[in-house]
Design goal:
Length: about 325
């Protein structure tokens, strides 16, 4: 009861609320695997049959690299946000997977919100995002938002419309501090969006031979999170060559497996024919990353189900 009163108060202040099955990937620290994880989890959820929309809220626009669509200016999304219209969607990037591209134009959001902040009727960025995304929501089973490392307004906007946050982190101290910062920002936003839940933390880029470090980082994070959220059991190992290939070719890790094998065949064929082989791959395979992302996707989706069923009680 208290919760619904709170929700009512929030909808009065803001004409927006959380959008069901919307997950923001966030960490205040850069380069900790937000985009890679968002893209690959989206890819696996789509393979599993969910209709997925990925929103790139990052001015860097890196999602285009991991999903292999042409990089965009972000102007389409920016214009929709400013005019209060529905965001333009790039359809069928993969089967069951659509995208709202980000890009440089999103850099102007922060300044725009600042100049609007004196207007009493303006609403915040969460309201703007809600207006541009909510009309699309009924077409999707899952909405994933990739957020930038800084740009507070954009991250808080994502938190204002999401029902869950996934925090990827590396094992170094600066990244773990980043987790703490997101967790704090998360608490602040909960007054605005009481439906927001912390889904969990993903250990990303763990060295294959750093078992003791991994265990110690896991313990630190578990202590930090208490009973609020789990550290997911699946961790993503560090594999620079495979990840460089994936990003360069715009392939998800499960797609990289097949592409590398095909490239090896083509290379042999070219060598046999006395032709110079074309630009190849750095990696010989995706080294288990495909399986790790598949397992992680399973964990995240079941955690979302758990969160939703708690919410409906
Ligand atoms: N398994 C992996 N092992 C090592 N490096 C990886 C792995 N997967 C991805 N990378 C690389 O790590 C870098 C950071 O990853 P990513 O871009 O996903 O992080 P991010 O948190 O989104 O960064 P930003 O804060 O800049 O948005 C990228 O160059 C990416 O290609
Ligand atoms: Mg990123």
């Amino acid at each position: 009861m208290a919760r619904s009163l709170q929700a009512e108060r929030n909808t009065k202040r803001h004409d927006s609320a959380a959008i069901d099955r919307t997950v923001a990937f966030a960490n205040g620290k850069g380069g900790v695997g937000k985009t890679t994880t968002a893209a690959n989890v989206a890819g696996y959820a789509a393979i599993a049959g969910a209709k997925v929309l990925v929103i790139d809220l990052d001015p860097q626009g890196d999602l285009s690299r991991d999903l292999g669509y042409e990089s965009a200016s972000g102007q389409g999304l920016f214009n929709a946000l400013v005019t209060g219209t529905t965001a333009p969607v790039l359809k069928d990037i993969r089967e069951n997977l659509d995208v709202i591209p980000g890009g440089q134009a999103l850099e102007d959001i922060q300044g725009l919100m600042f100049s609007r902040s004196t207007r009493a009727d303006a609403g915040d960025f969460g309201d703007m995002l809600h207006r541009s995304i909510e009309p699309l929501a009924e077409d999707y089973d899952l909405i994933i938002i990739d957020t930038p490392p800084g740009e507070r307004t954009l991250v808080e906007g994502a938190f204002a419309i999401a029902t869950a946050v996934v925090i990827p982190t590396k094992s170094d101290e600066a990244s773990i501090d980043g987790v703490e910062r997101v967790a704090r920002r998360f608490m602040a936003v909960r007054e605005r969006n009481p439906n927001l839940q912390l889904a969990g933390v993903v250990l990303f880029g763990v060295g294959p031979r750093s078992l003791r470090l991994e265990r110690s980082v896991r313990e630190t994070l578990e202590e930090m999170l208490g009973t609020v959220a789990p550290v997911f059991a699946t961790r993503i190992r560090s594999l620079e060559s495979a990840s460089a290939d994936a990003r360069k070719k715009g392939l998800l890790f499960h797609e990289l497996e097949g592409a590398v094998t095909q490239a090896q065949k083509d290379r042999l064929k070219a060598l046999r024919a006395g032709i110079k082989p074309s630009d190849g791959f750095f990696s010989r395979n995706a080294g288990g990353l495909a399986e790790e992302f598949e397992a992680l996707t399973g964990e995240i989706l079941s955690r979302l189900n758990e969160i939703e069923s708690d919410d409906n009680q």
